[in-house]
């Protein structure tokens, strides 16, 4: 019932290998912002999304407003997974009690969101995040979901779809990610999904680093709309402290993401295989 | 009517030159935390205070909890002076509307607080800041006021005094700072004030740096309870971005503070003049 995007309507061929290298988590920290901007400007990252509730949102929003040439989505946020670096809703937390811990910050784990969050509070908060992004001068190209939390249940997916319709923005859906968050068979008529999603891996990161994994992913990309999800940041003092006791998607991983996707050899690899960049701005034309 | 602290009750002599080197703004950023910690551990900084509403509060609170040997106050916060780095109340902002801008963040200027803030909302919010600090395991030694905002009016001063009484903590009062915020003659019976406050200066900072100014301050310290207020931070990527378009008390200034007060020559200067360190923990014994 769910369909892949019809990329022929954009002028692509069925056999074309299309790739979006998407930077999640812009706005999280100064390090994340700086690395994301450099990866957009000098690397092959061609899309990113911003976390509105984070301390560094305004810094990234300033960039987004003045650089509308880059695909920029809203990374709808319902979790704060860091131990000593906390953020909470855009709305007063007393208005969305099911979304927060006893200090008014987002729950750390997406399972808590699945268990506790009331869909109407989720919707209200995510509308507020979008409204704040719009007010900051961002012209969003898409919506996606931090830690894929909106894929966790059919109720959350329903909110996700409603927000897409309401703000006329494509939402990032992937059957593969839905399986990974234990919510398979939840797609429905009218959903558009990307063909494949690629992402780093903690074991590989710890043992050999991510270069080999990403190289293999690029060498094996198949025809269709591929997305590589990365989280570029510099492994500096700030980012190490944000990620303290949280090596999964931690600052080392993020530095590897930055390094690999700004390496000229990576760009060459894309050229060799005639991999074409694709953006949400293009997708917007055929999905709405 | 207001009195200087009676330091003879602590065993000091009338002619003793007592000095507290106090680091404000801990919790503001990762850079501020790291520099404050290093300045406490290796420099002559002997007291600091934490901004509870800031993104890096939890990181600093973790340090404070595990290092109770250092004087640690609560830097009561009602303003957010930074352009693209925003924070707001600990309470849901809808409960303290007079304290926030239209996005729910603190006003940027203390004059806005003076004009708009309702004393009962100020009190409620500052109680929440103290309660959060206590819950985080901090054992505060004193209260002080970010940008000396609580000195702006008699109503705000009344809240400040009430909080001190309520939580049995000395509050940092200075007739000199009250004059600087255009609220002279506002002290009253029962107030205890420090003898002198020393602070950097933007013009000096821009032209020759702060070393000479601080050196002169130390050479001219008089007998009594002296406080030098500093804001140590590293002038790194994060701090430059926090302070963007705000060179006054900006990242350069903060690096100079760190450098001077961790320089062994500064410690030698104190020794030469027999300047003795004093802390709020001591003051607590005679003020409550």
From TrEMBL, chains A, B:
Domain of life: Bacteria
Keywords, comma-separated and alphabetical: Carbohydrate metabolism, Hydrolase, Magnesium, Metal-binding
Entry-linked InterPro entries: Glyco_hydro/deAcase_b/a-brl, YdjC-like
Keyword Calcium: no
Cofactor section: Mg(2+)
Protein name: ChbG/HpnK family deacetylase
UniProt keyword Hydrolase, yes or no: yes
Transmembrane segments: none
Molecular function GO terms recorded: deacetylase activity; hydrolase activity; metal ion binding
GO process terms (BP): carbohydrate metabolic process
């Amino acid at each position: 019932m769910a369909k892949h995007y019809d990329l022929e309507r954009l002028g692509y061929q069925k056999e074309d290998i299309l790739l979006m290298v998407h930077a999640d988590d812009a706005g999280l920290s100064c390090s994340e912002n700086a690395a994301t901007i450099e990866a957009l400007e000098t690397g092959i990252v061609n899309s990113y999304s911003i976390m509105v509730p984070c301390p560094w949102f305004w810094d990234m929003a300033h960039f987004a407003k003045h650089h509308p040439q880059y695909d920029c989505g809203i990374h709808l946020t319902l979790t704060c997974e860091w131990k000593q670096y906390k953020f909470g809703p855009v709305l007063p937390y007393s208005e969305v009690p099911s979304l927060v811990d006893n200090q008014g910050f987002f729950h750390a784990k997406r399972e808590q969101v699945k268990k506790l969050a009331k869909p109407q509070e989720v919707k209200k908060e995510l509308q507020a995040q979008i409204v704040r992004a719009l007010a900051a001068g961002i012209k969003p190209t898409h919506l996606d979901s931090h830690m894929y939390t909106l894929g966790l249940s059919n109720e959350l997916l329903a909110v996700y779809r409603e927000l897409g319709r309401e703000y006329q923005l494509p939402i990032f859906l992937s059957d593969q990610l839905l399986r990974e968050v234990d919510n398979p068979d939840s797609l429905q008529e009218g959903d558009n999904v990307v063909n494949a999603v690629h992402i780093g891996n903690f074991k590989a990161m710890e043992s050999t680093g991510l270069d080999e994994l990403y190289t293999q992913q690029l060498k094996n990309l198949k025809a269709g709309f591929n997305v590589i999800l990365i989280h570029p940041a510099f492994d500096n003092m700030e980012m190490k402290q944000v990620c303290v006791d949280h090596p999964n998607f931690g600052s080392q991983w993020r530095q590897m993401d930055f390094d690999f996707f700004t390496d000229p050899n990576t760009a060459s690899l894309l050229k060799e295989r005639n991999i074409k960049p694709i953006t949400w701005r293009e997708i917007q034309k055929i999905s709405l």
